[in-house]
Design brief:
The protein has no helices and 14 strands. The chain is mostly beta strands and 193 residues long. The chain has a single domain (2-190), classed as Glucose Permease (Domain IIA), CATH 2.70.70.10. Strands 1, 2, 3, 5, 6, 7, 8, 10, 11, 12, 13 and 14 form a twelve-stranded mixed β-sheet that branches. The chain has a two-stranded antiparallel sheet with strand order 4-9. The radius of gyration is 15 Å and the shape is globular. The two termini are 25 Å apart. The mean pLDDT is 94.
């Protein structure tokens, strides 16, 4: 388990997948991603997008600022992979545009499906909590704009083990939660904003 300082995005988001059971989190079937969390835009009243949902711009989380969740060093930064049209996926470049941050020698955060052309960090850059590092997108194996977030034990996804992510102080619905790992259907944001 690793305690991150903040959620890796600005503003509120809905947890589409998150938790420790297969009902809460389809990622559970992948040992490396068993603690992964998918964040999407808030449903209002029940849809995560406006209009007919056929354009990325209609999704409430599209191009939202993605933030460093804790201090660290960038060990991987991929940009230049086109964003998909909603409901289409790029299975060749599964993670799409992505960033991996080393927080400790045993904890690396992985942020995926970032917007093409938005990654603002490079390998070896040092980041602090809350630094803007990219924008939310729809690249890679993604059917709609969202942020896929997980932590792992090394920067090598072939040998890494999953690390459970908890966040120091976040707001879930109207309650401030300490050391909480977001669960499916949570509406969450950083407690300070």
């Amino acid at each position: 388990m690793f305690v991150f300082d903040i959620l890796p995005f600005d503003g509120p988001a809905f947890v589409l997948w998150g938790g420790d059971t297969k009902e809460q989190n389809y990622h559970i079937a992948n040992p490396l991603q068993k603690h992964a969390i998918d964040f999407v835009g808030l449903p209002s009243p029940i849809l995560r997008y406006t209009g007919d949902g056929t354009r990325n711009e209609q999704y409430r989380i599209w191009k939202r600022a993605i933030l460093a969740p804790a201090p660290g060093t960038i060990v991987e930064a991929v940009d230049g992979i086109r964003d998909n049209k909603p409901k289409e996926m790029n299975s060749y470049m599964v993670m799409g545009n992505m960033i991996i941050i080393r927080h400790t020698n045993q904890t690396f955060s992985v942020l995926c499906h970032l917007a093409c052309g938005s990654v603002s960090v490079r390998v070896d850059d040092r980041v602090d909590t809350g630094d803007r590092i990219a924008l939310c997108g729809n690249s890679g194996r993604s059917s709609e704009p969202h942020l896929h977030f997980h932590a792992q034990s090394t920067d090598n996804s072939n040998t890494a083990e999953a690390v459970k992510s908890v966040f120091r102080r976040i707001q879930v619905e109207n309650t401030i939660m300490a050391n909480h790992s977001p669960l499916k259907l949570d509406i969450t944001k950083n407690a300070n904003g």
